[in-house]
């Protein structure tokens, strides 16, 4: 007999079936029990009328059940299964669950839930987050492949830090000191130059940042894009804007069920405003009397400015553009027209930066000079710099933090809720 | 004027166009030059009749070219462009290329080519390897998503080794000792148990193996699958076999152009034979007088046995099944019917192991006992073992080494040719 999934049962006749899953809830009245069975597609009521069988079921045991579909208006969903055979195929070995998962909410701290991820994820609403996340990734890939970008996989063990700074994890690589890549920055540029022209990568990025906040992870999934033969950074913002429109459309089609579970309504995106950083700083000062640090906007400023944009343009998104040279990496293209300014941007989504991007320097001499200006030794970037000797075209790109995008899209409070198994300063388990 | 890609030109009229790309070859006759321009889609001949323009072009510079399409039977592909304007947009800074890339073959060792990956990949045939690899990944994802597997992303920084042994890289994680995951084994099992039921992951795996051979990489891309509610390991082999059939069909449809460039003909897969390890050892001894190590077949044996299978069944693939307990990890399900034997398998493709898989132990007590039998401390696997207390269903999975599959499919001689930027014992650059 072939297994039937819970989501298929509603459309079936009153026939014999085999279902498999976990025991989600037990309401026992001695000689009869109503038991909820959960599989990856949903939850259904089982009716058990055998005392031995009733005694055998334990919460969260996994079971194989044969029975007959029966319509019952009082059952959740209007259907239940009259059980004929029940076999425990995955036993339980606990006295008490770490926390109850079949109530309205989990009554445990986020930390406790993360400690027992294999329990908390059994709730359909916790798992729904990752089903949406999966479709975000799928949309990203689909959109870029449709536009002839190549998907690449580049090494995470590298010989020198990519983004500079000390915030890098060290690896013992056959008794040599190596690092975990902070981003695929150098490699995605290199692959553009190597003839792929337009590439993307979905992979882990590592930041040894000494931040333990609601919006930081030390290992995260980065959605990276790099594109050659561009005119300037506007091509990149155009690309990201079009992707965002596509994404929201795609999710509204593919994630209906999960968005309902999570009670999330997706807006449609019309246009993402683009505001220069200095204009944004001025607006913050004039409207909110909010002072900003030199060449940047702090976390509070991002939230305020997002609110301003939402009121004025009804947009959850805003591009902040033209950051100063001092706030961007040494490979960022300077803006000809504005001294000290770069062709760069951030994308802010509901008050949180989810993307950093920009045009890169493609000329060997200019890049070398810029390294020296930034106080780094060109020799420390041997192969990277070397790759610019051979006709590197104008190019640029951006990266989206997958967990940040997921968090904001689903209105989660902590980025850890958007990571299956988060890594932060104090957590490397499970 | 919108950029036109080389692959589109053949279908166009004799009209004005803008193309971009790199200078691939220059044949100059003083007042006239025939120049090949290469973009990501192909190569086309430019006709230059301006001496200043001719002097300005250098091999591998990137350029923007405006001109008029002109049919010419003597031009490669029957079409060329009469150039009106040529702009160098990416300058060159070299005296000599590290090696020539516009001849029949690259006259440089693999090591030299890898040192200058940003040059060697500019050849269409080198890049074609990764376009096929991209489609392998796409087929894997497509096939599994169609069968309701969830794509997951699990941490690569972990607190304890997964596959046992000392072949693990250590990371300094905020002054704690952590490791790079040898596989997502524990996590993919955990996610099956956490309610996803069937999962896959496309991610890096790290092996600090002291092997520097044609078939080993220390960082590679692993195509991992794990599936709950199975009967036994045959369900897994069925799944992999069906995937392989799908893969070859999919590649024959999507990679025609690249397979032609690489001169590779894809066979169709009818059925993959399944032979127990002990039968395979017997056949090797009887047919080839080849002795095998206890409970295994060595690399030479794999090649000989593949040849035997090819002759007998016309199959490039063979599943070797039922490995002994001593040769499999502690989480492998023992075979009830054969003492000392496990429900495990390898998939051998043209003489090379590309997959290891099997059913896993899902019962907490049994797993704990097995750990003790294997001489490992259950406490060292705290959260992993703990996750088996809550009704873990019967399950199993497998992993395919992406670079190994690519290498065999494309008849490459060295696995490094199937990695954009390989990592081995001596290489962490570029």
Description:
The structure is a homodimer of 430-residue chains. By secondary structure, chain A is α+β, with helices and mostly antiparallel strands. Chain A folds into 2 domains: 6-95, Beta Barrel (OB fold (Dihydrolipoamide Acetyltransferase, E2P)); 124-418, BirA Bifunctional Protein, domain 2 (2-Layer Sandwich). Chain A has 13 helices and 16 strands. Chain A has helices spanning 6-9, 51-56, 110-115, 117-120, 124-146, 185-196, 233-254, 256-261, 277-288, 299-313, 364-373, 382-386, 402-409; strands at 16-28, 33-39, 42-48, 62-71, 79-90, 150-151, 157-158, 170-173, 176-180, 198-206, 219-228, 274-276, 317-321, 344-349, 352-360, 395-401. In chain A, the strands form 3 sheets. An 8-stranded mixed sheet of chain A has the order 6-10-11-16-15-14-13-12, with helices on both faces. In chain A, strands 1-2-3-5-4 form a 5-stranded mixed barrel. In chain A, a hairpin with a 2-residue loop joins strand 8 and strand 9. In chain A, helix 5 packs across helix 7. Chains A and B meet through strand 1, helix 4, helix 5, strand 6 and strand 7 of A and strand 1, helix 4, helix 5, strand 6 and strand 7 of B. Chains A, B: This is Aspartate--tRNA(Asp/Asn) ligase. Chains A, B: The record marks 76 as: Important for tRNA non-discrimination. Chains A, B: Its main location: cytoplasm. Chains A, B: Its EC number is 6.1.1.23. Chains A, B: Keywords: Aminoacyl-tRNA synthetase, ATP-binding, Cytoplasm, Ligase, Nucleotide-binding, Protein biosynthesis.
């Amino acid at each position: 007999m072939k297994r039937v999934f819970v989501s298929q049962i509603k459309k079936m006749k009153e026939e014999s079936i085999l279902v498999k899953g976990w025991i989600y809830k037990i309401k026992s009245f001695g000689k009869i029990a109503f038991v909820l069975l959960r599989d990856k597609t949903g939850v259904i009521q089982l009716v058990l009328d055998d005392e031995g069988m009733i005694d055998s079921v334990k919460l969260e045991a996994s079971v194989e059940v044969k029975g007959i579909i029966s319509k019952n208006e009082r059952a959740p969903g209007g259907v239940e299964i009259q059980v004929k055979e029940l076999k425990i195929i995955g036993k339980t070995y606990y006295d008490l669950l770490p926390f109850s998962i079949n109530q309205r909410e989990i009554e445990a701290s986020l930390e406790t839930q993360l400690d027992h991820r294999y329990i908390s994820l059994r709730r359909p609403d916790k798992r729904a987050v990752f089903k949406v996340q999966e479709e975000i990734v799928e949309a990203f890939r689909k959109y870029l492949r449709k536009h002839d970008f190549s998907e690449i996989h580049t090494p995470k063990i590298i010989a020198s830090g990519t983004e500079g700074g000390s915030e890098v994890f060290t690896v013992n690589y056959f008794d040599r000191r190596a690092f975990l890549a902070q981003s695929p920055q150098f490699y995605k540029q290199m692959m553009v130059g190597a003839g792929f022209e337009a590439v993307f990568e979905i992979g882990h990025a590592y930041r040894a940042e000494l931040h333990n906040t609601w919006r930081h992870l030390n290992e995260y999934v980065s959605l990276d894009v790099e594109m050659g033969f561009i005119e300037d950074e506007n091509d990149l913002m155009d690309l990201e804007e079009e992707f965002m429109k596509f994404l929201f459309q795609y999710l509204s089609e593919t994630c209906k069920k999960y968005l309902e579970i999570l009670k999330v309504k997706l807006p449609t995106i019309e246009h993402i405003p683009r505001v220069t950083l200095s204009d944004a700083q001025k607006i913050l000062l004039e409207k909110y009397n909010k002072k900003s640090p030199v060449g940047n906007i702090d976390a509070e400023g991002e939230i305020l400015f997002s609110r301003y944009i939402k009121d004025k343009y009804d947009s959850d998104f805003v591009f902040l553009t033209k950051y100063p040279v001092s706030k961007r990496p040494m490979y960022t293209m300077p803006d000809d027209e504005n001294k000290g300014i770069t062709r760069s941007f951030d994308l802010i989504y509901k008050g949180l930066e989810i993307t950093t991007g920009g045009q890169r320097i493609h000329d060997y001499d200019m890049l070398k000079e810029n390294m020296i200006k930034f106080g780094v030794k060109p020799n420390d970037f041997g192969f990277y710099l070397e790759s610019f000797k051979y006709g590197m075209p104008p190019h640029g790109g951006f990266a989206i933090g997958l967990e940040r995008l997921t968090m904001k899209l689903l209105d989660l409070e902590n980025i850890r809720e958007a990571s299956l198994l988060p890594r932060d300063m104090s957590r490397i388990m499970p």
